[in-house]
Amino acid sequence: MEETLLLLPNSVKLYVNKIDYASQLIIASDPDQCLPGQLRHFNLSTSPFKFGDMEQDDYAFFNCTSWKGDTSRQLACLSGPGYDIFAYFSSYPIGYSDLTSCTKMYNLSSIPREIFWQNNILHLNWSGPECVHCEAHGKFCRSKNNSAGLGTECYDKPKSKEDIKKKIEASVATVGSVLLLLVFFAAFRVYSSDKAAKENQKRIENFLADYKAFKPTRYTYADIKRITNEFKDKLGQGAYGTVFKGQLSDEIFVAVKILNNSTGNGEEFINEVGTMGKIHHVNVIRLVGYCADGFRRALVYDYLSNESLEKFISSEHGDASALSWEKLQDIALAWPKE
Ligand SMILES: Nc1ncnc2c1ncn2[C@@H]1O[C@H](COP(=O)(O)OP(=O)(O)OP(=O)(O)O)[C@@H](O)[C@H]1O
């Protein structure tokens, strides 16, 4: 596996295990697994780095043939057969340990304690170039082109093929959804307008059907004779003519009034028929048709099985209590007005 190397002054080479740009920290290790061996050559003052471990001490290094004191600062990777290398706190008095079989090698100051942990890990911080603000905005960081110092600038992360593919997919999905919505909307509009058009058509047809039903039909005298079955069933006699029962179909019965006065103005009769034909009210008997065949004139009404109103209101023909004065008032008020 290829390792990334960090080159420090005095040809010190370290492996880069991890870089944390957010906190500007490099975790490094010694390729020879012996960080204390590199200590003599460390000179970070001319590099942008400083030790990350702030617990630092000054040491005197000793080469001992025998050692009777604290072995926590014994540097195994520097020791050899018949001798051991120890780091001795410079702040300790010389008489603190027995150094009689030791030779002092050199002093080193401001050594981070983690060097002696023997896990071959060294934390190095850098203060410049400063990239924290780029990291915070999810961007990459680079040296400013025209800057001789440690000036940096942020730049957008280059888009990978995967990113571009995802972007295209997202755009296609968005456009697709919008198109689908438009298609649904258009289909809905077509369906609604089609439905409205059909409803309109139905309304017109219903109106025409109603109009046809309400418009009085003109009958010939022969029709009148057929409808009344040759004037077989006389219903009554009024001031203007004789009324016969008739039948238009199996279920539809009519009352046909054969008018006495056939000498009058025919046009007047037709106009009257036209006016009556337009009146449609629940309380007014409906004029179904008419006959104006030469001097023979007749009016065809819906058949009422309850005989004449006169029979109800006149005490002579019926029970007066059947139609009280209140009922008569109701009927009068419900009479259609023009
Ligand atoms: N639509 C009808 N259905 C059933 N019977 C009817 C109908 N119209 C009239 N008659 C019968 O025929 C009779 C005569 O009716 P008609 O309308 O000619 O005269 P009237 O209502 O008695 O009075 P007027 O001649 O003054 O109008 C009525 O009394 C009734 O018995």
From TrEMBL:
Its EC number is 1.4.1.14. Its cofactor is FAD; [3Fe-4S] cluster; FMN. It is an enzyme of class 1 (oxidoreductase). It comes from the Eukaryota. CDD domains: gltB_C, GltS, GltS_FMN. Its main location: plastid. Pathway: Amino-acid biosynthesis; L-glutamate biosynthesis via GLT pathway; L-glutamate from 2-oxoglutarate and L-glutamine (NAD(+) route): step 1/1; Energy metabolism; nitrogen metabolism; Nitrogen metabolism. SUPFAM superfamilies: Alpha subunit of glutamate synthase, C-terminal domain (SSF69336), alpha-helical ferredoxin (SSF46548), FAD/NAD(P)-binding domain (SSF51905), FMN-linked oxidoreductases (SSF51395), N-terminal nucleophile aminohydrolases (Ntn hydrolases) (SSF56235). GO terms for cellular component: plastid. It is found in: Plastid. Keywords: 3Fe-4S, Amino-acid biosynthesis, FAD, Flavoprotein, FMN, Glutamate biosynthesis, Glutamine amidotransferase, Iron, Iron-sulfur, Metal-binding, NAD, Oxidoreductase, Plastid, Transit peptide. GO terms for molecular function: 3 iron, 4 sulfur cluster binding; glutamate synthase (NADH) activity; metal ion binding; oxidoreductase activity, acting on the CH-NH2 group of donors, NAD or NADP as acceptor. The keyword RNA-binding does not apply. InterPro entries: Aldolase_TIM (IPR013785), DPD_II (IPR028261), FAD/NAD-bd_sf (IPR036188), FAD/NAD-binding_dom (IPR023753), GATase_2_dom (IPR017932), Glu_synth_asu_C (IPR002489), Glu_synth_asu_C_sf (IPR036485), Glu_synth_centr_N (IPR006982). It catalyses: 2 L-glutamate + NAD(+) = L-glutamine + 2-oxoglutarate + NADH + H(+). GO terms for biological process: ammonia assimilation cycle; developmental growth; L-glutamate biosynthetic process. NCBIfam families: GOGAT_sm_gam (TIGR01317), PRK11750.1 (NF008730). Belongs to the glutamate synthase family. Monomer. This is glutamate synthase (NADH). It comes from Populus trichocarpa.
